[in-house]
Queue: 4 jobs
Job 1
Amino acid sequence: MSRRAVITGVGVVAPGGIGTKAYWKLLSEGRTATRIITHFDASPYRSRMAGEADFDPVREGLTPQEIRRLDRAAQFAVVAGREALADSGIEFDQLDPGRIGVSLGTAVGCTTSLEREFIVGSDRGKYWEVDQSYAVPHLYDYFTPSSMATELAWTVGAEGPVSVVSTGCTSGLDSVGYAAELIMEGSADVVVTGGTEAPLSPITVVCFDVIRASSTRNDDPTTACRPFDKTRDGLVLGEGCAIIVLEELEHARARGAHIYGEVAGFASRCNAYHMTGLHPEGIEMSDAINIALKQARSDATDVGYINAHGSGTKQNDLHETAAFKRSLGAHAYKTPVSGFKSMIGHSLGAIGSLEIVGSLLAFEEGLIPPTANLHEPDPECDLDYVPLVAREAKVNTVLTVGSGFGGFQSAMVLKKVEGAGR
Amino acid sequence: MTRAVVTGIGIASPNGLGPTAYWRATLHGEAAIKPITRFDSANYWAKIAGEVPGFEAGRHLQGRLLPQTDHMTRLTLVGTDWALRGAGVQPNDIPDTDIAVITAATAGGYEFGQRELQKLWHQGPEYVSAYQSFAWFYAVNTGQISIRHGTRGPGAVVVSEQAGGIDSIGHARRQLRKGVKLALTGGMDSSLCPWAWVAHQASGSLSRNNNPRRAYLPFDRDASGYVCGEGGAIMVLETPESAAERPGTRVYGEIVGYASTFDSRMPSREPGLKRAAELALRDAGMDASEIDVVFADAAGIPELDKAEAEAIKGIFGPFGVPVTAPKTMTGRLFAGGGSLDVASAILSIYWSAIPPTVNVENPVPEYEIDLVMNEARHGKVKAALVLGRGKGGFNSAMVVREYR
């Protein structure tokens, strides 16, 4: 009997509110949470907007030591991790810790903290020889993002396989795919997975500025991210985290757990094309979709909803629209497609997991969140992008996709599990 | 179960470029830890490292790649070229979607990142390179390898500090089991720039001894921390069926077991290294008595050395198996270290010799391990166990065996 990986707990830190409830409220109401950046003075930059989380680590129960030691992205992971654990109802201390794993996605790790410390140590870039006397004791934890997996593993008491998966903007999908593989192959029974990112610091904003990938609609930040709209002009950065408790199906059933859905298929592809560019034909994303569907033993016509990458660039919109048509054929035109980045911005290595959680909640609520800010559809994007308002629909199979710098293309098929309690 | 064999090895190590030069130097115990030349270390308390000498990226890579790559990406790309060439893989030999690229990372292109941070804060946003968006991030090497070789199969990047080099190979084997024919895998790493150096110093793990022969002494009573190095190994891992499609392909050895575990924060719990090794042996379907050598993690930090010695002793018995740490010649290579150890284990099998651990003079007697010191031991090596640990609690183990 092959092992199956199902989701039994979720936790969220997102723009618009902390916790899964607040997140779903935002998505289901089609509200946006992008705004002018408040974390630092963004006035020197081309794009000055982001989806910021109103995250107060004290209110979220972190200790002063944790707040001092942990990068904001790691703080998100701990808080969302605790919510996911509680939601799963698993008594983690009753499990064999060796059968618990962690797989955490992040694209840029602890960059915000690294930049902060760099400014001090180099005296605002004056010296190439950074002054060692200013190094904080936990600088090395910022240096490598695996420290965040460590933190999450400590939170849940994991002693099985633990790692960070870092594949740029597909990290949040790939980490969950990796986790599912650990469960299916038998390396773990429970894997706490997901993605976290708190990239809102000048260096990351500049990265997207210099390649003109981000929106300059600074006078209207709440509607700036407009996937599939012909007035779109780029992505809007975001921050956030979703942590997911992934569990082997029989393990979950044995304890009568509520099951949100199954990670039934997952595939990633490299496009071998360009570190930041996308080929308009979408062949590799389509390949990933086909393999994920095959692994899920699903037909294209089973897909009831597509959670798009929807980053808000024309290149992306054409790329994924082509991929959906290539894989789903005529069914692509009948399938609702929507993009959450229109509401919460692009939180790089976290967004894939946030999209998974939003898609699972669409199962629960029978409601497909919309693509916000889609007023003037781009005629070249001719699918059903669920503009502005959520739509009621009974969905049993969701396809969620991601594209990332480095040429990564990922696709995951989530399926509702029959007889799943609650 | 799908098998996974190593048919190509690209190595950039402080003591040798390419598997032949590396292996000759390693068997002869040629240490390459020296005073740092890549930046002025006068104002830092740690002043030595293992630097890869004689690597001129411009001789191997097109000029257009240079402005968009960090040193560690250049090492990786050249190492990948060598691995593919050694494996005799020509473009179009294998469908592009049947090739996976799985690399390990620790800190990305850190030197590149420091330069751009400095530009941003000293000169202004308009001076930041358009390549910064990807040149420094952790996923860069997988993406660049894929583009360079036109591979369109699965891609991934694993980060588990210094255990990642082993984990990436484990994940590559997983991709073979899921159906790809060939994977380019492993890690090459470098973070020898001032901004990385202050982080390394802050880790609390570096030796404060700046005598290259006395700084990194794993299992020695004078162990005082480790020394950083750069480099690593990229391997061609493929199914035997895929290798057989290229008649005459050399098979170095086979990856037969892999597992990873994590250390609890609670001191009452046993560290996970022994469990990782046992799980890897079980995965290989092998008994400890079949292992001819252990390539140790060899942290060089007394409590970690003790824990590793206890794990080895617990599995093999006192002095039950030769243990070696060729990384005493190179320093620790971060994401590259685990993969270079796996490559060394495979070369050990291929060339029937165990490379020595250098500089260690006074192994702690209570550890009761048979440390291969000073000179190589020649003789048949059928199977090896490779251990790796990463700061924060990561443990990985891999079993490699001669291919039959």
Job 2
Amino acid sequence: MIQFLLLLLGLAAIGTAIYVVGRLIYDIVAMFRDRASSDEGDTAVLWRDVKAIGIVAQLVALFAIIGAGTYLWGNFRARTDAIGLKLTFDFLDQPAGITIADNPLIAGDSVSSAIVAGFFNTIRVIMVGIPAALLLGTLVGIARFSSNWIVRKLATGYVEFFRNIPPLVVIVFVWSAVFLNGFPTAQEAWKPLGEWFILSNNRFAIPSIMGQDNFGAFRWILLGALLLAGAVGYWRTKVFDNTGAPHRRVLWAFATFLGIGLIAYLVLGGPVSMSKPMLDDRGRVFSDGFRIQMPFAALTVALVIYTGTHIAEIVRGSIMAVHKGQEEAANALALSTFQRYRFVVLPQAMRVAFPPLISQFLNFSKNSSLAIAIGATETTNIINNLFGQSQPAPQLILILALLYLALSLLLSTIGNLINRKLQIVGR
Amino acid sequence: MNKSSKMLRILAMLLSFVLVVSACGSDGDEGSADSGSEDGGSDDSGTDDGGSDDVELTQGGTLAAVTSAGTLQCGGNDTLPGFGIVDADGAFGGFDVDYCSVIAAAVLGDAGAFEITPLVAAQRFPTLQSGEIDVLIRNTTWTASRDGAEQANFLHTTFYDGQGFMVQADSGIASLEDVADASICVLTGTTTLLNLNAVLGDLGIAFTPVEFESNDELNPAFQAGQCEVWTSDASQLAAFAANMEIDTAILPEIISKEPLGPVVADGDTEWAQVVNWAVMATVQAWEYGIDSSNVDSFLTSEDSSILRFLGEPITDGDGNTAVAEVGLGLDPKFAYNIISQVGNYEEIFEKNLGPIGLTLAGSPNDLWTNGGLQYVPPFR
């Protein structure tokens, strides 16, 4: 994966260079052809020809960039040559010697597999955190318009407090004050609700579902049920569009899914069961249930709190951007507050909110690198660790940058696709 | 309207020409500086005002660069009691910091002419490689791969350490076998982490690593019980335990050799030798029994070896006197400067590591004549 990314970067750089140079040459050739083919009187002198000036400006910019790049690269190479640092990527196959908590990585595994393992931890945080931050931010953004004085002021206070603190401070604060010292040690873990939850400053464990016999078949049936539920929802929408009868598509789809799932569950003789988290007597080995290490919980919560404030402000701004007449019209139709937001305000506000939201998602993913301070082993932590384990820093920094670049590009691509969908539906 | 836009275009063209010319100009400067220093390092030692950066970037020349800058750039620790920590007044102090002082005294004649760049463990080598610091003295373990792959040059070991394990006193853990399945706090980017994975992996002891970047977060995590075990160099564990409210215990097992000492970047032998001999002078002074309080009385010593060591003139059979020049590029009186301004090894050790409960006598850090490992080549 790492090698693939590097290859991709190399190809992209070469491709861009070829494109830029090719484009420039084409422009120059086209300009001279135009000048040669047009009449004597029509052509301006060369230094007054807009096209010529444009090409010269491009050449100048190109040489300035190449010059600056060469200078910096020369500086860098002078130092690496002086100390004998090799700029190869052979180290990716060397044993890394590091391990990650709750990860099958062993000390003998290669550097690249260690980096990939760290990267997946970053992705986990993002997959949980971004939806949570979106939910929190939207609720708080709406709460700032609440007619209830306390709710409104609480929302304002939360936004103004956390928005104005650097994310690192929020992370260390949440980690230290809430998670590290707010929860007991694993040896004295809280086990509320009949020991179905285990809360400690080492790990958190909550119940999960666990596959029994026939679990494979059950999973496929559930997937089929999900598709069928989608189809039912689509059919109800059609019915609504054609006849005007209430569609109740969510209810219909949900009932379809649940009905099939229930029948399959009974027929297959209980293919899944609840998995109760366990902790051994010494308070060390967590098993079963869904387990998360405390630093990751702290990181996710802190980033959700921090990013939530920014999302809340975006949501607030977008709601204010919806014309007042819309809200008045909704009130005139006697829609409830929920209906007003669900059907009138939010669909229009989201169209405004989404582009800035994408950059908040990117901020979330990049801020996850601050986890290094609280000992969560994600990408940045692993890369930093490798510097100290005799692996070359320049190459590792390049890989680190590439991983976050790839992640950000992926997130913004997904975001832009959703955004396009929103825009088309709206018009 | 039309005229003004044309004027703007011409202005833009002029501006871009200026840019190109200036870019070419700086290119030329860089090229000439490069070729100049490649011809030979001799002209580097001359006075250069703004060009010290260029000198640093090319082969050798660190000694000249430090001399002309007047300040030694030292990579250090700011979170480890006894070795390198910031006190209440914001000043750096500790065993490693004193060795920065030793080098400054030797090279610049002023024990205070150094600046500490505090570094976390993982950032040590990238910073050293970049040339941002002249020397790294930050409880750094000498290993083969660091000497090789990290382009580091390890010098005389100032502290012989080993990796130990610390637990809270009431944890019920008495030996390494008892830590099975426990969470173990460790710093990222350290040999400690590699040893932990390797040794416990070989023993088949499962554990959960909790990897922190800095002791500032690791320490509270250990005290709050997030991890039951803290592994680090035994001296560091002792240093932190001395400042803790809770009772702790150190496990009997020491799982590694951790020779800690100053490090410089590869590719500058002259500078490496200077740092090495400056550091070793503190041990030699200890061996001679010279310390900061009595150093002046040795200036008139009968022992020619001591006179030579302190850079005093030596009289030959004909009554001629001459100062021995060892050719390191240092002031002949560098050892005198070190001892009078900072002290000998024993003084530095007792001043910094005595208060945190480390004893010198009988430890591996004792002088070779007392059965320890501190042994330095002769100063002649």
Job 3
Amino acid sequence: MKTLYDKLWEEHHITQLDSGESLLYIDRHYLHEVTSPQAFEGLSKKNLKPWRLEANIATPDHNVPTIRGNDFNSDQIKDEISKIQVVELDKNCNTFGIKQFDIKSTKQGIVHVIGPELGYTLPGMTIVCGDSHTSTHGALGCLAMGIGTSEVEHVLATQCLKVSKLKNMLVKFEGTPAENVSSKDIVLYFIGLIGTAGGTGYAIEFAGSYIEAISIESRMTICNMAIEAGAKVGLIAPDETTINYVREKSFLDKESLEKAEDYWKNLNTDEGASFDNEIIIDISKIKPQVTWGTSPEMVVNYDDEIPTPINVPEDNKKNIELARNYMGIQDESKLSDLVFDKVFIGSCTNSRIEDLRQAAEIVKGKTVADNITEAIVVPGSGMVKEQAEMEGLDEVFKEAGFIWRDPGCSMCLGMNPDQLKPYERCASTSNRNFEGRQGYLGRTHLMSPIMAAYTAINGTVGEPS
Amino acid sequence: MKSNSEGLMIDGIVSYIDRDNIDTDQIIPTEYLKSIKKFGYEDYLFDGWRYKDDGKLGVKKEERDINKDFILNNKPFSESKILLTRDNFGCGSSREHAVWALRDFGIKAVIASSFGDIFYNNCFKNGVLPIYLEKNQIEKLFSLVKKEVVELSIDLQKRIIFLKNQDEINFEVDDHLIERIIYGLDDIDITLKEKDKISNFEKNRKITRPWIYANE
């Protein structure tokens, strides 16, 4: 009896080396401008070529400005250093012959958004990328994980990853969510429960009636944040929902697709397979979740008290004090007491069409609060943007006072001009609330698109109504 | 195999940061990920804590507002080769720049009670040794380093940390990982020795799972 992870591992296992590590065959390799230049340089120095060119798909996302308009090209990036990196990706893709959805492409976007929507991510694949949020692709039943730049070079050169097997964890989400609760709340709650190191060393399979009921987009949000629980792999068995999604996005011909579907339908954990760790969570009682501190595990119900260093175990006192201090939390006892400055709806966690629809639904006919100096919506890709515009969501956001941007990672990590200023407080749909993540001394509160939309309208984390 | 004699022992002063969950954004902020080089990150290590101003890639240490309270800014810790910290060091992103920054600063070993998975793996590819110890041992080391400047000797082959007071702490690490540091092995060279196996696997996969190759 095997788990889904065991099956994917065996399916791609080439050989075991003397060292005890295994060579795992990589089906798909995504590249972006930040973690690839040194890998290409290494390849050139060794006089090597990519093993299988077509396995590689590239796009610039981290550095790209999100105010571009039509006919924008890499040379027009104002930040000289960012420009070098994006131009370098252009050069490397041209030199080596790698398919790139470049800054001019209408299909450019965040690498973890474009992969699935362009049909390059297929169930059962091994997928790697020099980015920890590669776990996102696990939502389609892939063994997907983030790798460092040395490994990017290794995968380019050998089509393999040298790895040791992870342990298996099963996380079952059972029940029906309350109103205004989305998969972001579920995954934040889960991270709060097991902590940011709780999944270290594991591949986490998410299952249960809640997972079965939700869309691929919602599943991607959950697998995306597996890494915030410490697990570099998060995955969900393919089902009818997955196959319908793939059918819609795929460039495969009918015959190939049918053959593939026969395989995908049986790609799941055997009944009775054993896991090293199993957690069952009743999600019906989960409320919208909002982080208060500087680690994704520092999360509470939106209407709960913010933790204080009083009445907590000694070893956690300091973490709470440091986080409260950085986040500028003094006398405020609840999240609703905090006044926000900015709102960011976007990132590889929550920038897909479903996320934008949910947020638009709430802001429709309302206005962004006066204390919010900037509220931006950054669609995850050119295709998401186009779809949203077709549905008129851009107008809904603009009328409410949001700024509608071009695709990219944007304020999730502020490598482009979208950054917080020191001490600004931001309601963000991204994945990390680390110190300085969104800008030097910036303060990030992670939440769902629904809660970010409410915060934009209320100016504070308020009662969703 | 010829070993790199310098790689067998790590001797040096221990600096320490007493906090959990030090993520890769703290080890090196995103601004410096804009570099396309593999070296030159030493001035940006722990940038947000080491300086009192917002840095930019290319701006040197000398031009910054240095936080004199931060341990690595003070002698002898500025010469430290070993960093002691607590839980979940290096959690967060996959950026290898975090290890490059530690390496370029001169850190050769990080001792913690746990590490982020991707960071841990990246360390061995850049000659930085991450050492797991039990929490009580980490606690013991913290009580020592907070009293006085501590020098340690780490024997990579024997997996022993020697303290000056004759105490010893054993640690565990997989042979294949530590050998990468001792012998400075290149992963690509090793893997390409299996070239034929990879080719055969791929040939077979093209037949059994043709849809994977549909864009070719």
Job 4
Amino acid sequence: MSGEFKTPGQSGLILNEKLLWESGRKGRSAMSPVVSGLPPVSLPPDLAGDGPDWPDLSEQQVARHYTRLSTWNFGVDTGTYPLGSCTMKYNPKINEEMANLPGFVKAHPLLPAEAVQGELRLMYELEQFLAEIVGLKAASLQPGAGAHGELCGMLMIAACHRHHGQNRSKVLMPDTAHGTNPATAAMCGYSEVKVPLGPKGFMEYATVEKLMTDEVAGLMVTNPNTLGLFESELHRITEMIHQRGGLVYGDGANLNAIMGRVDLGRLGVDVVHYNVHKTLSTPHGGGGPGAGPVAVGDRLLPYLPGPRVVKNGDRYEWKEDLPLSIGRLHGFHGQFRVLVRAYAYILSMGPELKTASDLAVLNANYIKEKLKDVYDLPFDQPCMHECVFTNAKQAAARVSTLDIAKGLIDLGFHPPTIYFPLVVDSAIMIEPTETESKEDLDAFIAAMRQVAEEVRQNPETLHQAPARTFRSRLDETSAARRPILTGDMG
Amino acid sequence: MKELNELNLPSSVRYHDDHEWVSVSAPYRLGISDFAQDALGDLTFVEMPEVGTRLTRGEEFGTLESTKSVSPLLSPVNGTVKAVNEELNDNPGLVNSDPYGAGWIIEIEMNPGELDGLMDAAAYKAHLESEGGH
């Protein structure tokens, strides 16, 4: 790769950037080591020898390197990012401001309760909010990510069955489930019983009823499901599962569709996790910490992780004496400053959380109606917060779902989720979220229609797409088969 | 995606509705059909069982990872794993380029009667047609 770039600019001011190893020059440094005046000491022989091949760089080179890389990035602050099942809503900057208050930044998790009353109050109130938003009784902030929240929920279900002398070995799993659900069940020692999708895109009572035996610990269900459809028979299903001694785990991946609108307690859900990075506008990934708090109903409340924050008069304290608790899931108290962002969001929105869900659903239905004449819509019915198309109308022109996604990049949009959910062949899964304006939605719809038109006129260009990006189509197969994970490019 | 009439469906193997094939005589090898490899796209990893693993009809014994997705491998027969195709560890693309030859996945010790429940090429093609296959 070195020597390829004659000038830094490839297109206007989109700057090329080499690997740091290629930029280094012997003797450059970003710091001036203090001269200690002590005599040099030679290393023990087993520690001596050539060190790692660190590049020698100046501070400015490092700053430019990462700043240039950042200009190749695309995020929700750059443009529309309709990645289905990911809820890429805008993250208000007030969240960052609150999380960066010095009192929060500098609080040490080992401080005694009397020194962190503000933090404990925030945690206590956030737990109450999380329970109230979904119609449940209590919550725990400990789980450090969504999948960790799933693990927490299923450990509680297992603990509850054990406590009641029940030895159940299986969990019902709709075939629209996210892959983390069967993985979680397996980690808790359960084998999965697949629940096939009904013809309308959701589980049918009669199917679940046949599978629910006394070996089954419960059901893991995402509602709305990964097709963006409301599980319309869920109430009857949960009633039957409870009658037969089972419990219901609600996967909260799609809570953005139903905040304050669906009472999960009355719907028969015993525990649900939140993906705060989706529903409550905390940052997505980026290698930083996440949080996956869980909310529970009465039945699982005694099994929540401990210690728990409790309010005693006007003081907040830690309660350790929780005989049925599944114990600690986190070294300290959860990813506190991520949770501050979620708390800030809930307080900023207040009752408007309901409106956020309403608009998320409205926006998805708008896109669905505006595109269903040019893209195949396998389940043509009102959807919740996301809608799922396929490439069936483009397949005859040999244009795949991947080609459609790549074509969209050339028009300035992050592609939707593709090839998920697995129950739909070559799925294109679009989740606009509530924070895209009507103009943004219309521009996205126009781009999707332009891609469909291109398939009719000139399908070959889509096999080459993207053509207008910094890098053209990447060889994803080689990247997956032979990843180069070191700086040594050979 | 290939059209139905472009698929290679040899008569030397028997097919399962989950798109695995098993050879009609010993050594009994198992792989995935041309339809399956085409639908999955370029494979990046094949997770295979250990030799000696018992196979139960309808149960998962491994996974296929492609650039699109991760899919379970379901056993169409009862039997025991006699060998696995170690070549696939370095070159999973063999399943795409030669699904009935170098892209075999496991070899099975089984009773020949296990083949009875499987489809011949014509029945499998009809099955793909009824599924709205491509």
